[in-house]
Write a structure and sequence with these properties.
alpha/beta, six-stranded mixed β-sheet, about 20% helix, binds magnesium ion, binds inosinic acid, four-stranded antiparallel β-sheet
């Protein structure tokens, strides 16, 4: 079993290591470059989790690309899912008439991306797609799928590569499984 080095939690089991992630993100970038060849694309990353994935994805896209970020908070996650999502920081870039790709770390219940997709659609983008680093289809509550999926994973709680548990572990270069008994 490969484990990650982390000062606080030294024995996290690696689900996807940095090389597997880099290879897959490069493939996703190539696919996006083909799909938007000769066009420009605006990537909108969902803070904070998608920041690192967006940074890598953007650099593997050869089509004309710009990026921006949006931040949301959701309530009732985990126990009773209220589905209420609030925008904390909106994107600054006008998206009307643009080819937009929403970039997310994990598609889990689908509540966040459904909310964001509806929100962005109100601004009449030319096209709107979703790219997610991870997809946990087992936990889906809303009918929503991503157009570009890095990895489909079973129902583990994962951290690293931007993803957190109480804001920690985002800086791990590998995607690791957080044991249920984690502090
Ligand atoms: P949902 O699809 O609305 O349920 O929410 C997706 C968001 O929940 C993601 O953007 C993450 O911020 C968070 N999330 C879901 N599963 C995990 C996980 O395994 N690790 C860390 N964050 C997660
Ligand atoms: Mg997130």
């Amino acid at each position: 079993m490969k484990t990650a080095i982390h000062a606080v939690q030294p024995e996290l089991q690696i689900l996807l290591d940095r090389q597997q992630i880099a290879d897959r993100v490069a493939q996703m970038g190539a696919e996006i470059s083909r799909d938007y060849s000769g066009q420009s694309v605006l990537l909108i990353g969902v803070l904070k989790g998608a920041a690192i994935f967006l940074a890598d994805l953007a650099r593997s896209i050869s089509a004309d690309a710009t990026f921006d970020f949006i931040a949301v908070s959701s309530y009732g996650k985990g126990q009773k899912t209220s589905g209420a999502v609030k925008v904390i920081k909106d994107a600054d870039t006008p998206i009307g008439g643009r080819n937009v790709i929403l970039v997310e770390d994990i598609l889990d219940t689908g509540l966040t991306l459904l909310f964001l997709r509806k929100l962005l659609e109100q601004h009449d983008p030319k096209s709107l797609r979703i790219a997610t680093c991870l997809d946990k289809p087992a936990r889906r509550l809303e009918q929503i799928e991503a157009d570009y999926v890095g990895f489909r994973i079973p129902n583990h709680f994962v951290v690293g590569y931007g993803m957190d548990y109480g804001e920690r572990y985002r800086n791990l270069p590998d995607i690791c499984i957080l044991p249920p008994e984690a502090p």
